[in-house]
Amino acid sequence: MKNTELRLLTSDQLKDKLRDLYREALNLRFQKAQGALENPSRLRYVRRSVAKVQTFLKEQQLKKQ
């Protein structure tokens, strides 16, 4: 997801997105442990996406203060 798209989301939508990314990361870690991971770069993409969403959530919290 692009940064411009993430900036348009509300904090509730960002929290939902973060929860989905955590679930996907968990599933990818299980696949990696079983040796069934088809696309290893997806794990890196998901970790970075989690960091992006967390950054935008923090940014929104700071704006409210």
Briefly characterize the structure.
This protein is mostly helical and 65 residues long. The chain is 83% helix and 0% strand.
Provide the succession of SSEs. Answer: HHH
Terminal CA distance reads 27 Å
DSSP strand content: under 5%
Radius of gyration (Å): 14 Å
Q: Bin the helical content.
A: over 70%
* Number of structurally distinct domains: 1
Number of helices: 3
Main pleated-sheet profile: none
Number of strands: 0
Quaternary organization: single chain
Q: Architecture, according to CATH?
A: Orthogonal Bundle
Shape: elongated
The name CATH uses for the topology is Helix Hairpins
Query: What's the CATH class, please?
Result: Mainly Alpha
- Class based on secondary structure composition and strand pairing: mainly alpha
Poorly predicted spans: none
Question: What do you see in this structure?
Answer:
This protein is 83% helix and 0% strand. With 65 residues, the protein is mainly α. It has a single domain, classed as Helix Hairpins (Orthogonal Bundle), CATH 1.10.287.310. α2 runs antiparallel to α3 (40-64). It is elongated, with a radius of gyration of 14 Å. The two termini are 27 Å apart.
Structure characteristics:
single chain, 65 residues, mainly alpha, Helix Hairpins, elongated
